Amino acid sequence: MIIISWNIDSLNAALTGASARAELSRAVINTIMDYNADVIALQETKLPSNGPTKKHLEILEDKFPDYKIVWNSSVEPARKGYAGTMFLYKDHLNPDVTFPQIGAPDTMDYEGRIITLEFDDFYLTQVYTPNAGDGLNRLEDRQIWDMKYADYLEKLDKEKYVIAAGDFNVAHKEIDLAHPDNNRNSAGFTDEERQGFTNLLDRGFTDTFRYIHGDVTGIYTWWAQRARTSKINNSGWRIDYFLVSDRIADKVLRSEMIDSGPRQDHTPILLEIDLEP
What we know:
Elements: E1 2-7, H1 11-16, H2 20-35, E2 39-43, H3 54-63, E3 67-72, E4 85-90, E5 96-98, E6 114-118, E7 122-128, H4 139-159, E8 161-167, H5 180-183, H6 191-202, E9 205-207, H7 208-213, E10 222-223, E11 236-237, E12 240-245, E13 252-257, E14 265-266, E15 269-273
Parallel strand pairs: 1-2, 7-8
Antiparallel strand pairs: 1-15, 2-4, 3-4, 5-6, 6-7, 8-12, 9-12, 10-11, 10-14, 13-15
Helix pairs in contact: 4-6
């Protein structure tokens, strides 16, 4: 099974925008199409509360004709057009789809941050983890989220194997970003967020990229848009992950980044796993 995960940073912009960045986003979509993945997970879709428009669906169905589409959008009392997630999966697959709420603080449970697909032998779940915010104004809530989300994954893991994809909004170790010394106590690299991710792994999950590639450095999934040369200089962060239950880590064949060319922000990531008996 091949799974791709990507924080797309506005599905509408990627599908219908006219800017130079929208063109770069469409080039990434075309690259993803070539992989013929079984499942594609998208985060930060920023769709309206009622989901994709008819135009969005027409474009997606044209590009991914053999896929079913499910989504989870931000709804009141959360902000409109904020966060959000989407799965596209091959139409021969028939998972049960749920949109979990985990008892998170503030409006986090209403921001469309999790979708879970249940198959016969495993769960495939994606997450768009809340950012700690400007001035770390959401860090306390983020810490609660991390605990609640770890509880949720652990519960799933007691029932079936788990594959968890998405934007976890944390660089776990110093080797997961280009300039750790300059970013200490920045959102995504606080001691609290890093410990939260350690706690998650300690519940029985494997960071598949590190499992396959060890302590390799200089490979990232996100480059800040605000710094024009961040990608040219590879001043990036690895904040997008595929996690799996420890007991199926040896079934992972590939865990890698997909080249997104000159487009800054997130790049897609790919997992290939063999779950056949």
